[in-house]
Amino acid sequence: MTSVRPARRMTRSGGSTIALLVVAALVTASCRQFPEVKPSTDMERQGREIFRYDTFGDEQFWTDTAHLQDVILQKIQPLEALGLGVKVDMDRLNLAKFLIHNPFGTSGTKELLREDAVVGLKATFDKEGRLTRIGITCALCHSTVDNALLPGIGHRLDGWPNRDLEVGKILAMLPLYTADQKTVLRSWPRGSYDPRFNFDGKSTPLALPPAHGLADVKNETYTAEGPISYWNAYVAVTQMHGHGNFSDPRIGVAIVQEPDMVTPKLAALRAYQHSIGRPPTPGASYDRFAARRGKAVFDGNCASCHVGGTLTDNNDGTLHAPSETGMDSSYAARTTQKRYRTTPLRALWQHAPYFHDGSAATLDDVVSHYVRARNLQLTDGQRHDLVEYLRSL
User: Fold this and answer.
1) How far apart are CA 268 and CA 49, in angstroms?
2) 252: Cβ–Cβ under 8 A, 6 or more apart, which residues?
3) How do residues 233-291 score in pLDDT, each as one tens digit?
């Protein structure tokens, strides 16, 4: 445990910075770069509350076992939290109160939690203002912000994977892990997580997937082990450590906890996730004429697997051996299917890096990979056009 850093004194320069922040907040408060998801039914509204704010009772683990609250109180200042990829919802941020509570100290982090402004974290305080309980929600990994105020602080974007989140480094701060485990956790790339590490101790971290554009996708895991509610239950119970039931004899997991705070909420959670459409592609981010040419390249070389409106053949039950597409087999080998599904392509411009393991940093890397793995005979111009088409999806 490192020593607590003393809070910085407010300087004149700091005061000027704060004044600029206040002005910026007033100017940007009503501006949104992307439309907000607006639930249209009571079920979807319930699901949004669950997705954003429901911990499924996981405070018992994160507070009593992991002691996350102690790490926050002793080590995590607001700037450090932002550096770890944690996001702040400016629509819940009371900027004046936050600044009063010292934005350069852990007291500033406490104030953000008190305002319920930290995306994906839920805190409980006693009458004396002490942080007593902490839990996590789905939004920690599967929401981000539009940086409308500052990097890491903006309007909430549900369903966008938080590819800035340093999950491994955050977990490595917790006292429940051994030194060897912490070394592994610190090695995980930004925006990745291994959902089986706590079962088998192996490490093949996955890129956090987007949770938008799922309405017509039948299986939302990289290895297609089940539909979205299967994965929501698996994550809520076995990874978030929520208080609920999950059973899958294929992987030898059978967890029964009463009361079940997960299963009754899965239908509403799915309804909200299905309501989150693919975010619109910024027109300036790709060449429209090249994208039109690139669609022809895609149809001739990629559409046999990326089929139909969902751009995946997995809706028909198809899975692919890693060798078919040149994928690393390590993660698939740890699953029941031993194969990968074809990824449904949606909003690719938004969530680099690519592939299940994030091994392709850019869409150019994606195309280059498939040129090698599938021996595609593409000219440089066709490669460029294909990339522009992928950017447009």
Assistant:
1) 9
2) none
3) 999 999 999 999 999 999 999 999 999 999 999 999 999 999 999 999 988 889 999 99
Q: What's the token pair of residue 41?
A: 């039914």
Comparing CA positions, the residue from 26, 31, 20, 44 lying closest to residue 277 is 44
**What is the H or E stretch that residue 153 is in?**
strand 153-154
Separation of alpha carbons 337 and 321, rounded Å = 9
At residue 231, does pLDDT exceed 70? Answer: yes
Amino acid at 213: G
Amino acid at 301: N
Helix then strand then coil, in percent of the chain rounded to 5, is 40, 10, 50
Contact 302, 374 (CB under 8 A): no
Cα–Cα distance between 118 and 103 in angstroms, integer? 14
How many angstroms separate the CA atoms of 312 and 290, rounded?
Answer: 23
According to DSSP, residue 176 is labeled T
Among residues 140, 134, 135, the alpha carbon closest in space to that of 120 is found at 140
Whether the Cβ atoms of residue 358 and residue 161 lie closer than 8 Å to each other: no
pLDDT above 60: residue 13:
no
Range scoring the smallest mean pLDDT among 15-24, 130-139, 169-178, 271-280: 15-24
Contacts of residue 366, Cβ cutoff 8 Å, sequence gap at least 6? 354, 355, 360, 387, 390
Nearest CA-CA partner of 244 in 260, 265, 232 = 260
pTM here is 0.91
Share of the chain above pLDDT 90, in %: 85
For 219-256, give one letter per residue: b (16+ CB within 10 A) or e.
bbbbbbbbebbbbbbbbbbbbbbbbbbbebeebeeebe
Is the pLDDT at 11 greater than 50, yes or no?
no
